[in-house]
Amino acid sequence: NRSGTSLHLVDCESTMKAAILIQRWYRRYIARLEMRQRYTWNIFQSIEYAGEQDQLQLSSFFSFMLDNFTQLNGNERQTMFEQITVPESYSGPHLTFPLTVSHTNALLSAFKEQQPLHGRYMLQLLHQTKKLLKQMPNVIHLSTPYAKEITICGDLHGRLDDLLLIFYKNGLPSAETPYVFNGDFVDRGKKSVEVIILLFAYQLLYPDHMTLNRGNHEDHIMNLRYGFTKEVMQKYKTHGRDILLLVQDVFSLLPIATVIDNKVLIVHGGISDMTDLYLLSSIERHKVKTDCKPTGPSTQEPQYRTYSTGPTTQDLPYRTYYPGPTVQDLLYRTYRTGPTVQDLLPRTYSTGPVVDLLWSDPKSQPGCSPNTFRGGGSYFGPDVTRRLLERHGMTLLIRSHECKQEGYEVCHDGQVITIFSASNYYEEGSNRGAYIKLGRELVPRFFQYQVSRNTRKLTLTQRVNVAEGSAVRAVQEKLFSHRSELMAAFQQYDTSNSGCISVSEWALVVESVVRLDLPWRTLRPRLARLAPDGSIDYQSCFEDMGPGQPIPQVTPNLAETLYRYRTDLEIIFNIMDKDHSGQISIEEFRQTWHLFSAHLGVEVDDRAIDELAKSIDFNKDGSIDFNEFLEAFRVVSALQTNSTLPHLF
C-alpha cells in the first residue's frame, strides 16, 4: 500500500509539473502573439498616418493641379438629370421622389446582387440630398425619447458588407431605430458609392432619424488619393464628373457635429483647446470644400502653421508645443545627403474650427498640441476634454477617426469613446467593427462584429501570420523607397567599410530616415540579417527586393524616386486623365513629372524622363497606361513567392 501510495504521489506530482509547464508555455505563446499583434498594428497605423501627412503636405500642389488642369471646379456646368434617359435594358432599381420604403428596399436588394444604380438616379439622389442638407444647421440636436435608443456608427470607408451587417443586426433606419453615422463613409473600400447611396437614401426617407456627420474623408482632395474619385469614374463613365461635382457640394454641406440630449457630443475627429461649440453655428461650412487646401487665415477655412522658417506672430500661441529640435530632427539633418519632400516642404499642420473637429485625436498626456503625425488638427488631453464638457454641461464625447482592434476604445477617464465600424480595415482579421447604442440614461452599450468569409476558418496564429506578413511587407517597401538615403546614413556609421553596423545604430538610422516610430529592434529579424559577430549586415535590408518589371533605360535612383512618389504621381495622373480612361498622352506624362519634380525639387534629368515615357509606351500609340507604369515600379519581395511567411517567434 505504501509503495502504491508513493507511486500515486509521484504520478500526481508529475501531472502537476506537466500542467504547470503547459500553462507557462501557453501563457508565453499568447504573450508572443499579443506582442506580434501590437507591433503589426503599429505598422499599419504608422504607415496610414504617414500617408495622410503626405497628403496634407502636398495639398497645395494638388489644389493647383485641380484648378489648372481639370474642369473639376465650381465653374463647370452640371448636367441636368432630367435630360438623361434610362434605357429599357436597365434592370436596376428605379427611384422617384419623395422616396418610400420600397425604394430603399429595392436599393438594398440591388446592391446585394451587385446591381448598380443608374447615373440619372444617382444625380437625382444627390440633388435631393443637397437640398435637404442646405436646410440643416452645423450642429444637429437629437433627443432620446423614453424606451428609444440611438445607434452611433463610426468609419465605414466603403465597406458595404459592414453597413449591411449593422442593418441586419440592429435594424434598418426608421423612426424606431434612429442612427448617427459619424463620417468617413468613403475611400479605401470598394463600395463607397453604394454606401453613400444607402446613407443618403435613408436620410431622405427619415430626415429626423438619420444623421450624417462629416468626416475628414468627405473631401474631394482626400478622395483623389484614397480611391473614391476613381471608383465613381469607373462606375459612372458617362456622368462621373457631374456626380463628383455634386458630391463635393453634398460633402461640404454635411453637419460637423451632433449633440444628444445636450449631454453627448459626437464629432468625427475630436476637439482642441480652441474649440467653442457656441461659435460653430456661425461657420459657413459649405465654404470648406476641403480641409486640405490652404487658403490663408480665415475663420471659415483651414489655417496653417509653419515651423521650418521660424516663429511668426500666428505661431506664438503654439510655441510651447515646439521647445526646440529633437534628436530625430538633428539626426535627420545629419543623414540627409540632398533635399527630399520633407526637407523642401515646410513642416506644416492645418488647424481651424472645422479641421480640429475632423482631424484631431485624443492623447493620454494633458494639454493640447499639433497633430503632426497626421498633419492636421490637434492632440487633446483629458484636461482639454474635461474643460470643454464642463463648459457646455456635457458628460461624454463620442468620436471616430481611428481604427481600434476591438472596434471601440474608452479613454480620458471614460469621457471619450472612439467608435470604428469598418471591420478588417487593415487586413483580413485585423480588427472588429462596432457600434454604440445610447438610451435615455445615456449609458453606452457596445456591439461588436466582424465581416468575414475566411477569418473563421483560420486559427489565431494563422490570422496573426497573415496580418504580420502584410505589415512587414509594407515596411520593406518603405525601406526600399528610401534606399539611397538609408545607405548613405548607414555608411556614415560604417567607418571601416565592413558593410556592418551595430543593432542600435541600425535602428537609429532607420527611424531617423523613415520616421515611422516603430519597434525597429523587434522588427529587425524580419528586415535585416545579422553578421557572425552580432552586428547587422545593413545591405541585407534590400537584397530580396527590387522593382517589379524594371525598364532598361531607367537608372536605379530614378526607379527608387518614382516608386517613393508613386501614389502622388497617380493622383496627378488621375487629375490629368480627364476621362479616367487609365491613359494619358506621352506629352501629358512628361508634363506631369516635370511639374511634380519642379514642385518637390527632385532633380531628374529631362532626357531620362523622355526615355522613360517612350519606354512605357509599349504599343507606340502615343499614350501611356498608368497601371502598367505602376506595375513596372512596384516593389517585389522574394517573400511573395513563399507559401509560408516566417515570423519572429
TrEMBL record:
- Supply the name of the protein: Serine/threonine-protein phosphatase with EF-hands
SMART domains in UniProt: EFh, PP2Ac
Q: Which reaction equation describes what this protein catalyses? A: O-phospho-L-seryl-[protein] + H2O = L-seryl-[protein] + phosphate; O-phospho-L-threonyl-[protein] + H2O = L-threonyl-[protein] + phosphate
Tell me the lineage of the source organism. Eukaryota, Metazoa, Chordata, Craniata, Vertebrata
**Alphabetical UniProt keywords:** Calcium, Hydrolase, Magnesium, Manganese, Metal-binding, Protein phosphatase, Repeat
Q: Where is the composition biased (Polar residues)?
A: 296-310
Q: Which GO terms describe its biological process?
A: detection of stimulus involved in sensory perception
The record's EC number reads: 3.1.3.16
Gene Ontology molecular function terms on file: calcium ion binding; iron ion binding; manganese ion binding; protein serine/threonine phosphatase activity
Task: Report the cofactors.
Answer: Mn(2+); Mg(2+)
